[in-house]
Amino acid sequence: MQQYTNYSLLQHNTFQMDVRAALYVEYNSVDELCKFLLSQEFENHRNKFIHIGAGSNLLFAGDYSGLVLHSAIRDLAVAEDTREHQLLRVGAGYVWDDFVAYCVGHELAGVENLSAIPGEVGASAVQNIGAYGVEVCDVIERVEAIDLQGNPRIFTKEECQYGYRDSIFKKELRGQYIITHVVYRLMKSPTFKLGYGDLRARVEAEGEPTLSAVRKAVTAIRDSKLPDPKKLGNAGSFFTNPVIPSEQYEVLKTQYPDMPSYPIDDTRVKVPAGWLIEHVGWKGRALGRAAVHDRQALVLVNKGGATGKEVMQLAHRISEDIYAQYGIRVVPEVNYIQ
Ligand SMILES: Cc1cc2nc3c(=O)[nH]c(=O)nc-3n(C[C@H](O)[C@H](O)[C@H](O)COP(=O)(O)OP(=O)(O)OC[C@H]3O[C@@H](n4cnc5c(N)ncnc54)[C@H](O)[C@@H]3O)c2cc1C
To answer: 63 and 190: one domain?
Structure first.
């Protein structure tokens, strides 16, 4: 276990916030984690702590006066192998995209559309990451976690209550469990999902679809659209796409005929937050050192030296403008850490 005081988090958040944690602890095993949770050190910090992954969905308002925990559990093992599928049990600290590369390299299907999403395995199960028509809950079998008293618990997929970028770990169990391993079900014969954007055209340009062709195409599309956090600090999509009642959408559509929507069920539709941001005039605009990306309105960026508070102010202004014009509330997907 490694433990540091007054520790720089600059390398641990993709927004490139130059902030410090009062205490940073990284553990290497479930055993080490349990021992730490029972220690006086943890007791002293129980009231203010956060568990992070790669910090690609976090926005620190400033220095963090509590404890930051991080998992270095990075094992990967086959938990079950049948003719149709493999269950893979993966440590929470495993880099998500390395896991996707492993699956594609072993001809295991299910996560190829989720290529190149920053972050680690543990957070994938918290955030229910999604892209190109696939959500990680489609392949999650179970989640292994430890409560703050050091007791293990296994959550079935149903118990995780997955929804759009949502899970029980973001709601009633927020901050109450630490995920140590995730078990994924990968299929041996792929069912390709190529219906999003120009994915099909790109994949088929290479010939018959393969897992590696999908991975390559998804990575290329993402590279062309999203700013690289190493060059321009950001946390991907800043807001979730708002879900509104179909009736409200029908009224808005009479006034804004080009407003896009995606049906959720018979009574609700999803409206792209990027469209709303662009149409209230924020695309490419800055507020101090925080800005809205000029190619991707859903991405807020740190132009250099911005503080978390500046980014939060920008997000607040955008959200108020959208509400004033459309009566729709956009909510940050990014976790604010105060
Ligand atoms: C350029 C860019 C593109 C992105 N594109 C996408 C995308 O296409 N789709 C998408 O869904 N997301 C996307 N994201 C967001 C981000 O990649 C995901 O939310 C990712 O899952 C965050 O992983 P992380 O390890 O960085 O978690 P962090 O940001 O460090 O943490 C996220 C949350 O998970 C919790 N957490 C982390 N680890 C654990 C653990 N072991 N136990 C309990 N709780 C834990 C944290 O407390 C926090 O609440 C993008 C981000 C960037 C920067």
So the answer is: no
Residue type, 299: V
Q: Which residues line ligand 1 (CB under 6 A)?
A: 14, 50-58, 71, 92, 117-120, 122-124, 126-127, 129-131, 165, 169, 178-179, 226, 229, 234-236, 335
- Residue 30 contacts by C-beta under 8 Å, 6 or more apart in sequence? 73, 146, 152, 180
Q: Distance (Å, rounded) from C-alpha 174 to C-alpha 187?
A: 31
Structural tokens at position 184: 């994924």
**Ligand 1 atom with minimal separation from the 128 CA:** 11
3-state secondary structure 26-69: EECCHHHHHHHHCCHHHHHHCCCEEEECCCCCEEECCCEEEEEE
Neighbours of 284 (CB within 10 A): 12
Residues 124 and 242 in one domain: no
Q: Based on the domain organization, do 31 and 116 belong to the same domain?
A: no
Q: Compute, in angstroms, the gap from residue 122 CA to the centroid of ligand 1.
A: 9
Same domain, 214 and 330: no
- Answer yes or no: do 325 and 262 share one domain: yes
- pLDDT tens string 113-148: 999 999 999 999 999 999 999 999 999 999 999 999
Residue-wise pLDDT tens digits, 211-233: 999 999 999 999 999 999 999 99
